[in-house]
Amino acid sequence: MNKNNEIMSDRFYYNSEKRHSDEIILSCDDISKTYENGNSLTNVLKHVSLEIKKESINMIYGKSGSGKTTLLNILAGIDTASQGNVYYMGNRYNSMKESKLAKLRGNNYGFVFQAYHLIPRISVEENILCPAYINGKKYDREYYYFLSKELGIEKLRKKVSYQLSGGEQQRVAIARAMLLNPKIVFADEPTGNLDSENTKIITQLFCKLNKEYKTTFIIVTHEENLIENCTQIIRIKDGEITIE
Ligand SMILES: Nc1ncnc2c1ncn2[C@@H]1O[C@H](COP(=O)(O)OP(=O)(O)OP(=O)(O)O)[C@@H](O)[C@H]1O
Ligand SMILES: [Mg+2]
């Protein structure tokens, strides 16, 4: 194990600065987010606190504009809150240097963005392998083939992303998020552009990876009952959350 990996290991994160339970991988405390639009302020999130259990599947529901993407991005450390704290294994994002937070994301998180964010001029295969190139990590070729097959994109390997349909791009983005077998996958409307058959394939894959690889999922969706037996449902309304 190289030094960087050692630094990012669970043991390191257990050096907790917050009293926290071993069961909880991610938590946030009293998060608020306010946007300034000219003279007016929009309070998108108001005093949101929640806990994400290890190896759990969590759904975030809410109407369009309710703050789902904002909350997901704050939990993932790619956006900052106006107030409050986020903790990975009890360690506060705000007390990490940006480089340490970037390593934490690179080593432990996978992202499926609402707008895919595929790199336009490189092939599907290169897009999927991006996390390995960027983080200087080895990837498992067999696992890459497994993901491509499960997601029905194995024949698209040589294509470039502008040649793909929205649903195909979405499935490539999902393969990319999974490549390094991250501890947490943050997925923003991962089935938003998919038909019911592909939605079923994706949700079954998420459940399989959750069981076999203990991956934690935080999934934003409009679709009620996307995954029947999820651990936790987080509903956002008027900036506040309720948890079921
Ligand atoms: N950078 C920004 N500046 C100002 N307002 C913003 C910004 N980003 C988001 N908002 C506003 O914050 C609110 C929440 O946005 P967000 O993207 O989190 O909603 P959402 O629940 O993900 O919506 P959707 O289901 O349509 O994706 C919206 O009213 C949006 O207009
Ligand atoms: Mg959104």
Mean pLDDT: 88
Query: Which strand order do you get reading across the main beta sheet?
Result: 6-7-8-3-9-10
Globular, elongated, flat, extended or rod-shaped: what is the shape? globular
Structural classification: alpha/beta
Which range best describes the helical content: under 10%, 10-25%, 25-40%, 40-55%, 55-70% or over 70%? 25-40%
Strand content is 25-35%
How many strand elements? 10
Give the distance, in angstroms, between the N- and C-terminal Cα atoms.
40 Å
Please characterize this protein's 3D structure:
By secondary structure, this protein is of the alpha/beta class. 33% of the residues lie in helices and 27% in strands. It contains eight helices and ten strands. The strands form two sheets. It has a six-stranded mixed beta sheet. A hairpin with a 2-residue loop joins strand 1 (24-37) and strand 2 (40-53). The longest helix is centred in the C-terminal third of the chain and has 18 residues, at 196-213. The radius of gyration is 18 Å and the shape is globular. The chain starts with a helix and ends with a strand. Bound molecules: adenosine-5'-triphosphate (ATP) and magnesium ion. Adenosine-5'-triphosphate binds at residues 35, 37, 42, 44, 62, 64-70, 114. Residues 68-69, 114, 188 line the site of magnesium ion.
